[in-house]
């Protein structure tokens, strides 16, 4: 009950982490099945239909449900600590964002058990996603599940924006914020602009499928290319929504383990802003083969190539940070250093794909698959592992085993390059993506075999990480405030794990890398910006959980509203929208309870803090 009703950002971070791990595991199993199917020509491990469902669900699960919540876990756990805040701006909304995300993800994955998963690819292009070609409820699970999960992400983005704008500690100007706080801020702004687009697209596709509308139907005067525009005007910023927080993590890890300030801090900030701005101006490079014309293709080619400039600035700044530093090759730093050449390779193939004539050849081949995974796995997932290893003691009070961590790193990165490096050549040889099998003796056999072996090695790496977590949790939570000894930002100035109220007294920030500055001045704790006093805390509440349950029930009811069940009572419940109404009543009833009954929270008195011997 404590976990269901919590509004504490640190507990919500752990919930996000657990949910992300669950969906990441599901997506990983789907990936392994895909690779085993493609290990040899004419393999029959799964049917073509199941393969289409696996391809669709792997991409959708990993992008929307696997890596996104782990990023939100970091944002929840670390951001308020880094800016010297006691909580996020809206604790209630924070909980609501998590539960809507979780129930949206559960709804999407229920499709496996309720008549078949979506099978139109993770981009769900029409007319393939129309009822003419996807006549089960699979795509309905996709549209409604992602709307509910996306609502949670949008709520989270608004919350983090408000937190950073209004709750920074005294002295923490924007240009004194840690880079992870900056990337969280810019990512949240991108979420605010990108997610409404995909929500509109999913609503229109739902109307087409369930209510018989014609937004994307040529026969009814619609346009299927409209879906591509709507999807990619969200989909390309989404790549940067995922990768920018990883940039922020790398920008924290490398300075800590180089014992140096981040090189070119202000240029890093402006490069991040420029990446976000340009990220909204490149979406049609996914559509070079749809016939937009030479002018449009040229403009989107140029804007795509331009985005390599601010990314290059970041790469060189990280290299210059390490230059002349006292580098320690901890597990977290290995991931960060491994990230650099891997992400650069993804960027180089991205510039290749930005050339419209070249893209005509690369399009829909495994070259694109290789590029995308070099950016998302080689960039984002390596960044996530760096962040997990780096902040694990702060979140849980325990250091992960370094030896096992380094073994995990080598399994994962060697497996990754084995899997995806060869896929560039598979693509150049003409192997199409989303095809369930291939003929022998085309030069594809050995490369596919190598790719599958690599995927299995990555799987071993993930399992080793989980073993490391289990071993670590059997030890006492005795990590010091600053377990790496070279922590630079505010989260390392308080106990690990942090107390419920984070800071007993809000700290005074006197410069960039605030905690490092205090340590260099000989201080053992942050200078407080306020006297000791009562601390206001928000009350736990089950209402966010109940609201999300209501939305989940309503979504399920709407999806099956036109079905014939062969049971009079079930037909009555679903065909008359009774289930939808029940779900909405639960949601709006919870909203009414939230609105009509004041909850003033509770206070921690200074005497309680002194009894606990609390330090800032």
Automatic annotation (TrEMBL):
It is a multi-pass membrane protein. The keyword Isomerase does not apply. It catalyses: 4 Fe(II)-[cytochrome c] + O2 + 8 H(+)(in) = 4 Fe(III)-[cytochrome c] + 2 H2O + 4 H(+)(out). It holds the Pfam family COX1. Keywords: Cell membrane, Copper, Electron transport, Heme, Iron, Membrane, Metal-binding, Respiratory chain, Translocase, Transmembrane, Transmembrane helix, Transport. It is found in: Cell membrane; Membrane. Its EC number is 7.1.1.9. The keyword Lipid biosynthesis does not apply. Belongs to the heme-copper respiratory oxidase family. Cytochrome c oxidase is the component of the respiratory chain that catalyzes the reduction of oxygen to water. Subunits 1-3 form the functional core of the enzyme complex. CO I is the catalytic subunit of the enzyme. Electrons originating in cytochrome c are transferred via the copper A center of subunit 2 and heme A of subunit 1 to the bimetallic center formed by heme A3 and copper B. This is Cytochrome c oxidase subunit 1. It comes from Paenibacillus polygoni.
């Amino acid at each position: 009950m404590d976990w269901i009703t919590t509004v504490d950002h640190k507990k919500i971070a752990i919930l996000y982490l657990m949910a992300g791990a669950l969906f990441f595991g599901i997506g990983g199993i789907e990936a392994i099945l895909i690779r085993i199917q493609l290990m040899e020509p004419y393999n029959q491990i799964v049917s073509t239909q199941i393969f289409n469902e696996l391809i669709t669900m792997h991409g959708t699960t990993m992008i929307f449900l696997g890596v996104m919540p782990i990023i939100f876990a970091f944002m929840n756990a670390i951001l308020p600590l880094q800016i010297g805040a006691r909580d996020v701006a809206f604790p209630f909304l924070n909980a609501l964002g998590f539960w809507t995300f979780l129930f949206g993800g559960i709804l999407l994955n229920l499709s496996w058990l309720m008549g078949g998963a979506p099978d139109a690819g993770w981009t769900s292009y029409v007319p393939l996603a129309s009822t003419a070609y996807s006549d089960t409820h699979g795509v309905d699970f996709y549209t409604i599940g992602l709307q509910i999960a996306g609502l949670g992400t949008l709520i989270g983005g608004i919350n983090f924006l408000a937190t950073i704008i209004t709750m920074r500690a005294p002295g923490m100007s924007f240009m004194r914020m840690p880079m992870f706080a900056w990337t969280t801020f810019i990512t949240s702004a991108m979420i605010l602009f990108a997610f409404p687009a995909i929500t509109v697209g999913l609503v229109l596709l739902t109307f087409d499928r369930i209510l018989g509308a014609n937004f994307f139907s040529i026969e009814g005067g619609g346009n299927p290319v409209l879906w591509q525009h709507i999807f990619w005007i969200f989909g390309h910023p989404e790549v940067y929504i995922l990768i920018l927080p990883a940039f922020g993590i790398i920008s924290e890890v490398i300075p800590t383990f180089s014992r140096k300030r981040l090189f070119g801090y202000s240029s890093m900030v402006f490069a991040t802003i420029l990446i976000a701005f340009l990220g909204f101006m490149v979406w049609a490079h996914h559509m070079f083969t749809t016939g937009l014309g030479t002018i449009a293709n040229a403009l989107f080619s140029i804007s795509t190539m331009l985005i390599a400039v601010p990314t290059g600035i970041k790469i060189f700044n990280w290299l210059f940070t390490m230059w002349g530093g006292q580098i320690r090759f901890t597990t977290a730093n290995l991931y960060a250093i491994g990230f650099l050449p891997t992400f650069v390779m993804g960027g180089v193939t991205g510039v290749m794909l930005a050339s419209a004539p070249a893209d005509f050849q690369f399009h829909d081949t495994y070259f694109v698959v290789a590029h995308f995974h070099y950016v998302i796995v080689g960039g984002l997932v390596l960044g996530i592992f760096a962040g997990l290893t780096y902040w694990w003691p702060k979140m849980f009070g325990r250091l992960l085993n370094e030896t096992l961590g380094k073994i995990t790193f080598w399994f994962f990165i060697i497996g990754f390059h084995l899997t995806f490096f060869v896929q560039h050549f598979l693509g150049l040889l003409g192997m199409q993506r989303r095809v369930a099998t291939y003929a022998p003796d085309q030069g594809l056999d050995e490369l596919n075999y190598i790719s599958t072996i690599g995927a299995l090695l990555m799987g071993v790496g993930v399992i080793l990480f989980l073993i490391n977590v289990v071993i670590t949790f059997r030890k006492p939570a005795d990590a010091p405030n600053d377990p790496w000894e070279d922590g630079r930002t505010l989260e390392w100035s308080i106990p690990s794990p942090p107390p419920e109220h984070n800071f007993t007294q809000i700290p005074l920030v006197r410069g960039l890398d605030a905690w490092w500055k205090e340590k260099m001045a000989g201080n053992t704790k942050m200078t407080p910006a306020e006297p000791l006093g009562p601390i206001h805390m928000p009350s736990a509440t089950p209402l966010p959980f109940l609201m999300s349950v209501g939305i989940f029930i309503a979504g399920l009811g709407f999806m099956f509203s036109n079905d014939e069940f062969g049971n009079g009572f079930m037909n009555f419940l679903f065909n008359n929208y009774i289930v939808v109404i029940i779900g909405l009543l639960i949601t709006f009833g919870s909203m009414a309870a939230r609105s009509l009954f004041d909850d003033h929270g509770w206070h921690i008195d200074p005497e309680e803090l002194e009894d606990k011997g609390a330090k800032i």
